[in-house]
Design brief:
Layout (H helix, E strand, L loop, with lengths): L1 H9 L5 E10 L5 E12 L3 E3 L1 H10 L3 H23 L5 E5 L1 H5 L3 H12 L6 E6 H5 L3 H13 L2 E7 L5 H7 L4 E4 L6 H21 L3 E4 L5 H10 L3 E2 L10 H9 L3
Parallel strand pairs: 2-4, 4-5, 5-6, 6-7, 7-8, 8-9
Antiparallel strand pairs: 1-2, 1-9, 2-3
Helix pairs in contact: 3-5, 5-7, 9-10
This protein binds guanosine-5'-monophosphate (2 copies), manganese (II) ion (MN) and sodium ion.
């Protein structure tokens, strides 16, 4: 209850901040993009984890306004850093189920891109399986319209839900993000390599790029190379960072 009341005012009080986690090319180890992750710091509650406040924001209908802020901020920062370093920075934004069901999402994405002067092809939206689970015509239609804008769509947390494989055919996604549970030591010991390898193979056959999440060790990185996974994200390379640190990270020229 306390969280809900505080959450209602968090946006106007400027308590949200974006963190940035690099995505790395598995073969060249060069930076390929960045995922933005929302952080909320309340003066009394302190740092509240997204897994705690995002479900509440969804339930109470705050996620639309928060999500809109995230989109606008991500495009603005993406544009500024891209200009500063003379590259096109690819930015991934998490979009929740309720945002996907909102009629305004396509317009908001379009406006965020236009106002920031950020190219649509540099924006990726990450959708979870649970966001797609109520597979209404409406969400398929929203996804098609987003694709027509030129943004990239990723299926996030792949492997944590059910009936995942059929989603790959049904929804117009471009990128598959393999959940970090695939890359725990114990998962990889139990023939996990073959499993990941088969998933990558299948995704490639469907024309999708594959991103591995939660990569923490060189060993796992080695197996990603063997599996021909395209990109990796995880503490091995960098934790999610506040903007000044991410700026320094870019300066160091990865
Ligand atoms: O950031 P971790 O850093 O703890 O993020 C936890 C979860 O919160 C992830 O599943 C992530 O998808 C979700 N999340 C982080 N930022 C956002 C955001 O801006 N919007 C939505 N909808 N989910 C987010
Ligand atoms: O959007 P998504 O559910 O994929 O959110 C990514 C989550 O994974 C965030 O909470 C982020 O902080 C976390 N994360 C990123 N890299 C690592 C990692 O190497 N190990 C672990 N345990 N978590 C990670
Ligand atoms: Mn994500
Ligand atoms: Na994920």
């Amino acid at each position: 209850l306390q969280i809900e009341a505080a959450l209602r005012r968090a946006l106007e009080l400027g308590q949200f901040e974006l963190y940035y986690q690099p995505r790395i090319d598995v073969r060249t180890l060069r930076l390929r993009g960045v995922e933005v992750l929302l952080r909320w710091t309340h003066p009394e509650l302190g740092r509240v984890p997204p897994l705690e406040f995002i479900p509440i924001a969804e339930e109470r209908g705050h996620i639309e306004a928060i999500g809109k802020w995230v989109l606008r901020e991500a495009c603005r920062v993406g544009k500024r850093l891209g200009d500063k370093y003379g590259t096109m920075l690819h930015v991934s934004v998490n979009v929740s189920a309720r945002q996907l069901r909102s009629a305004d999402l396509v317009t908001e994405v379009e406006q965020a891109l236009r106002d920031a002067g950020f190219p649509p092809c540099a924006l990726e939206l990450e959708l979870t399986e649970s966001a797609l689970i109520d597979d209404t015509e409406q969400s398929v239609d929203v996804l098609r319209r987003l694709k027509r804008l030129g943004v990239t769509l990723a299926l996030d947390d792949f492997g944590t839900g059910y009936s995942s494989l059929s989603y790959l055919k049904r929804f117009p996604v471009d990128v598959l993000k393999l959940d970090r549970s695939f890359f725990l030591e114990q998962s990889l010991d139990a023939n996990g390599d073959e499993f990941v390898s088969a998933l990558v193979h299948m995704a490639h056959a469907l024309g999708l790029k594959v991103v591995a999440e939660g990569i923490e060790t060189e060993d796992v990185m080695e197996s990603l190379r063997a599996c021909r996974c395209d990109e990796a994200q995880g503490y091995l390379f960098a934790r999610p960072m506040a903007l000044p640190e991410f700026d320094k990270f870019l300066q160091s020229g990865v």
